[in-house]
Amino acid sequence: MNHEAFKTILLSALVLASIAMTWNIWFYKTDYENYKGPSESVKPVAIAQSKNIADVVRPSLVLQHVNNETFGQTDSSLITKIYNLFQKAAFTDAFPSGTKSVPKRIGSVSYELVFPGPLTFDALQKVFHFEQMDPALAAGMLADRVEIYSSSADGRVLTAVFRSEQGKDLFYATVGHLTMDAFKNAFEKVVLQPYGRQQFKNKSVYLPLGTTTISDVMTYYEELPVEEFISVLFNDPNNVFYTKEKTVYSDGTRQLEKTGSILQYVNPGIGGSASGSFDPITHSIDFVNNFSGWTNDYLYDGLISTGKDQTSAEFRIQVGNYMAYNTEYYPNTYLPAMELTWKNGQLNTMNRTLLTLSLIDAQGSVTLDSGTDTLQKLRRTSIPIKNIEDMAIGYRLDTPQIGKDHSLILTPDWFYKIDNRWYSVADATLPQHSLNQRGGTP
Predict the structure, then answer these.
(1) What are the φ/ψ torsions at residue 214 (nearest 5 degrees)?
(2) Per-residue pLDDT tens for 231-243?
């Protein structure tokens, strides 16, 4: 065999060995396969609906203050009507509390909107009309309620005060294009319920002083395929690999997983630091709008700070006049919710339900105790009352059972919040209920 023939044979052998090793590397993990979805390229995705920010950032309670008494309603039609009045108003000459004298209250009646969670100043400016803003207003200011009252004898001058969750006055503004008569007409023939203010850990909450009767709700649900989010969450869908039997998709850095009816996404490869101002509320809404991801009637429910340059915005499903809750362990707590966590201006994690709910009919009704009586019941248990962060009436949405039909009954209940997790009062007041499901120890 001559020298040239030997080189040819050796080169061919090396090429074949290289091909074999490459093949082995690519396909050694037999439980992985390259994802081949319905779309082989990145295309605009429209999963469900897009929404205006005011459709997602909405109040959950409207109040009328008369002298030293407070009356309220959670009826969504009334809240929408009053919210529209606030949105049509022009807020001018805004100034931070403590920098000027506070306009006096003239008259005995005022009106207030309360949001489920605190709003950034950027979000406030998108749902309300502000003019002539004082540059001294802090960018980090968070307000979850706004009250309007008359500040002139003739009732023509109105003042708005924006407050924090703790009830602290943050800033004032003059209100134009709105009259107290407009509020009076909107509340005409509306039956209001007495409310009382309760101070919890870092939050002042208004609770009904009387009982509340709410209808059970039956809903039909469908489950959105998690594959719909491949093109949304990965830069290159063609380079995403699928893990059999785990429903996990990954491109080597980002990971998308389906657990029950919950979507869980994580992008750990975020470095650097955020540049410029960043609003997690408006950014989250814009992000979901990019793929029309509002599969249910979602309501903005609050912010969670999880570390330096890392904040989560949470959105919860609204059913009629109340929000829905799941009190099971992670990740089922996200069954009626969607949470987006941003780190340095980039999406770090997203947990959200894959369920789409369609309400069918009411099955009956439940009468719930007043807020005061409910707290008394909790005090007779092991619940650490001092650790409660919030309380609300809502619907209990349990995890669908495998093999059952696609219907769920949503049951009204009181819920309380400890360490950013919601718990059922009905469960907590059952005999011999375990402490780890009650939110800790006293």
Answers:
(1) -130, 145
(2) 999 999 999 999 8
Q: Are 85 and 328 in contact (CB under 8 A)?
A: no
Strands 248-250 and 337-343: unpaired
Residue type, 92: T
Cβ-in-10-Å burial (0-12, 13-18, 19+) of 17 comes to exposed
Name the token pair of 29: 């993990």
- Can you tell me the distance from the alpha carbon of 314 to that of 351, in angstroms, rounded to the nearest whole number? 10
Inter-residue contact 250 to 33 (CB < 8 Å): no
Residues forming beta bridges with residue 356, ordered by sequence position: 222
User: Rounded to a whole number, what is the largest CA-CA distance in the chain?
Assistant: 114
Token pair belonging to 116: 């489920």
Q: What is the DSSP letter of 442?
A: -
Tell me the C-alpha distance between 289 and 400, whole Å: 27
User: Rounded CA gap, 376 and 385, in Å?
Assistant: 10
Residue 7 has pLDDT above 70, yes or no: no
User: Which run of H or of E encompasses 350?
Assistant: strand 346-353
Q: Are 265 and 233 in contact (CB under 8 A)?
A: yes
Percent of the chain whose predicted confidence (pLDDT) is above 70: 86
Sign, CA dihedral 89-93-94-100, equals negative
Q: With contact defined as beta carbons under 8 Å apart, do 244 and 34 qualify?
A: no
Q: What does the pLDDT look like over 370-398, one tens digit per residue?
A: 999 999 999 999 899 999 999 999 999 99
Report pLDDT digits (tens) over 59-105: 999 999 999 999 999 999 999 999 999 999 999 999 999 889 999 99
Question: 137: closest CA among 162, 160, 159, 168?
Answer: 162
Cα–Cα distance measured from residue 412 to residue 369, given in angstroms and rounded to the nearest whole number: 11
Residues present in the chain in total: 442
- The Cα–Cα gap between 166 and 141 comes to 13
Q: Which long-range contacts (CB under 8 A, 24 or more apart) does 288-294 make?
A: 288/338, 288/340, 289/50, 289/51, 290/232, 291/45, 291/46, 291/47, 291/229, 291/232, 292/45, 292/46, 292/47, 292/48, 292/49, 292/50, 293/47, 293/48, 293/232, 294/48, 294/49, 294/50, 294/51, 294/56
In angstroms, rounded to a whole number, what is the distance separating the alpha carbons of residues 103 and 152? 9
What average pLDDT does the chain have?
Answer: 88
What pLDDT score does 347 carry?
A: 96
For residue 150, the model assigns a pLDDT of 97
